[in-house]
Every structure is written in structure tokens, then in C-alpha cells.
Write a structure and sequence with these properties.
about 350 residues; alpha/beta; seven-stranded parallel beta sheet; six-stranded mixed beta sheet; globular
């Protein structure tokens, strides 16, 4: 499977994206063969309207073991990599391998993001398919805040305001939300507090810290007492299967719904989550990339950060029935989240 996905990524032909001058080139820097990344690239190839001129896309393959030779066609004329222009890039590549100064580079995932930030250049850079934890790890890098380079960040998870709107749509009138967090959760909690305050709806956030696994049970008992629902943030708890299951079991035992930030969490027992698929993220990345290129000459030391547009909602119907909740359909919930607020 990994070889098939690698071949898919390396076989992507040069193509056009609408709305940009033909002289611009978009590069997709990839460091792995994750199915989600392959789906992202496939969607990026899809036409998004009519354009007289469009940039080319080149796949740049990052390899931790050293520079790779340019992809060459196999002896079989029907090879999926025949005639495809690709380049390789190492994490410690010299200046000669620096990304060219024109166009846009899209780095997929944390490893590719670090490699792209390490390269000299002034070309706009879009870091995509990053989790919030990935982004928090990258925030300390000086390269993320260079005034001469426009950098955009597209997160995999929707913004906290969208997560809060989902809770409101599923549990109208319920305003007590419990969270168990860890040390790196502070930016997410602050974003959630700002979103709650902006609604003016009297949200009460009950936040308990669990710095280690031994304190998780006590923190859960504390938040369960005064909460109508629980939310699992995309932090170290949300990133740990064992910790996530502990929250889900605690919620089920107390008869409280749990909201997550991924489809997998809903399958595991969360009531609902607002999500964006890799294909949907690719379409969002296209628009964000166009804005980065258009503003390439404008100095800004702060990256342009966007949460995923929650184009889809996943609901666990079994959990809803067990909690005796009448939950709107996934389509209706998605429409509510996409409506202006």
C-alpha cells in the first residue's frame, strides 16, 4: 500500500490551478505516504473553474536519508511515474537545493513543514495538514515569523468557535462544557474562551488540568459534577487513544455526551464532531494559497492561520439513542455550522 501511495504522489502530472498567472509554480512538499496526504493531492489536482492561465504543480519528495535522484521512468512504458517531473529535498539540504523564489510551496504534514521552513527563500509558503499540536511545536521557530516571507498555516481541525457552535446546535440551551486539558492546551483553551465570550450566550467552561495519566481520573470527576457535556480537545489527551477512551467512558458512565474533533473519535464513542476531509482541506488550501501569493509583497511577521472549514459533521447515532437525544441530521448540522454567525 505504501508503495502504491508513493507512486501516486510521484506520478502527479504538472497541472493548472485557477486564478493565478501562468509564470507561477506551486510545489507540494511531502515527506510520507499517508493516505490522507494522497487524497489531499488528488483533490488539489481537480479543476476549480475556468482559467486562461494557471500555475504548474511539482511534487517535491523529502527523504530523511539523503538526497534522492530525480524520479526516472521505469522500463515499462505504462509506468505511473513515466515522464513525471519531481525533485528531492533533504531536511539538511544545502542552499543549492533551496526552494525557488517564485510561486508557492505547500508543505504537507509536520516533517515537510519543518523542512520547508528550514529552506532559504522568500516565496510564499503554506503549511497544510497540520494538527494543532503540530502547529504549537512549530510556533517557536523563527522562520515562521519572517517579515519578508508570507507564511500560511492550515490546520486539520476546525476553529474552536465552530466546535462550540456544534455543541450549541446539538444541545441547544446547554451551556456548561467540561474539559480536561494538559499543559500544551493553553492556546486552545484561550481560543475557546474567546469564542464563548464572543457569543454572549453565557457559556460556562469547566476546565481541569491533568498533567499526567494518574491525575486524569480525578480531573474527570471534577468536571463531570458541573457539566452538561464534555469536549476532547486536539491536545495530548485527544492524541492519546487511552486518554480519549477514558474521557469517553467517563462521559458514558455519567450520561453526558462527549464532543470530539475527529471522525475517529466519533466512531470510538463521541456524540459528534465537526470535521473537514483531506479533499475539503485541499480546496480550502487552494484559496488560502491564492491569497498568500497575492499578498507576497506585503510585509508581515505573523503567519496567516486558518482552522479547517467544518464542511462535514459526524454523529454517532448509537450514542445519541443511548443518551435519548434527538440530534439533527449530519447534513443539517453542517449547514448550521456553515451559516454566517
Amino acid at each position: 500500500m505504501a508503495r502504491v501511495l508513493a507512486a501516486l504522489l510521484l506520478s502527479l502530472p504538472l497541472l493548472g490551478l485557477p486564478g493565478l498567472a501562468h509564470a507561477l509554480a506551486w510545489r507540494v512538499l511531502t515527506a510520507d505516504d499517508l493516505p490522507a496526504h494522497a487524497e489531499f493531492v488528488r483533490a488539489l489536482r481537480e479543476p476549480a473553474g475556468q482559467a486562461a492561465a494557471a500555475p504548474a504543480i511539482e511534487i517535491v519528495r523529502l527523504d530523511a536519508g539523503g538526497a534522492l535522484p530525480a524520479a526516472a521512468p521505469e522500463s515499462n512504458e505504462d509506468s505511473v511515474v513515466a515522464g513525471v517531473r519531481t525533485r528531492s529535498l533533504t531536511r539538511d539540504a544545502p542552499a543549492a537545493h533551496a526552494l525557488p523564489p517564485e510561486g508557492l510551496t505547500i508543505a504537507l504534514g509536520a516533517a515537510a513543514a519543518r523542512a520547508a521552513l528550514a529552506q532559504p527563500g522568500r516565496e510564499p509558503l503554506l503549511l497544510a495538514m497540520l494538527s494543532r499540536l503540530d502547529y504549537e511545536d512549530l510556533r517557536s521557530l523563527p522562520a515562521l515569523r519572517q517579515a519578508q516571507r508570507r507564511v500560511g498555516v492550515l490546520l486539520r481541525e476546525p476553529a474552536m468557535a465552530d466546535q462550540l457552535a456544534l455543541v450549541d446546535a446539538v444541545l441547544p440551551g446547554k451551556r456548561r462544557l467540561g474539559l480536561v486539558v494538559t499543559g500544551e492546551s493553553a492556546p486552545m483553551v484561550e481560543e475557546l474562551r474567546r469564542a464563548a465570550a464572543a457569543t454572549g450566550s453565557g457559556w460556562q467552561l469547566n476546565v481541569e488540568a491533568a498533567p499526567d495519566a494518574r491525575s486524569l481520573a480525578a480531573a474527570l470527576r471534577a468536571v463531570l459534577q458541573d457539566s452538561d457535556a464534555l469536549m476532547v480537545l486536539p491536545d495530548l489527551i485527544g492524541d492519546s487513544q487511552a486518554a480519549t477512551l477514558a474521557v469517553l467512558r467517563a462521559g458514558a458512565s455519567a450520561g453526558l455526551p462527549v464532543f470530539g474533533t475527529s471522525e475517529g473519535m466519533v466512531r470510538s464513542g463521541a456524540l459528534a464532531a465537526a470535521v473537514s476531509t483531506p479533499a475539503q482541506l485541499a480546496r480550502q488550501a487552494r484559496g488560502l494559497g491564492e491569497r498568500l501569493v497575492a499578498s507576497a509583497g506585503q510585509a508581515s511577521a505573523a503567519p496567516l492561520v486558518e482552522g479547517a472549514t467544518p464542511a462535514s459533521v459526524r454523529v454517532n447515532a448509537t450514542v445519541a439513542r443511548g443518551l435519548k437525544l434527538r440530534v439533527p441530521s449530519e447534513q443539517e448540522l453542517a449547514q448550521r455550522l456553515s451559516a454566517p454567525r
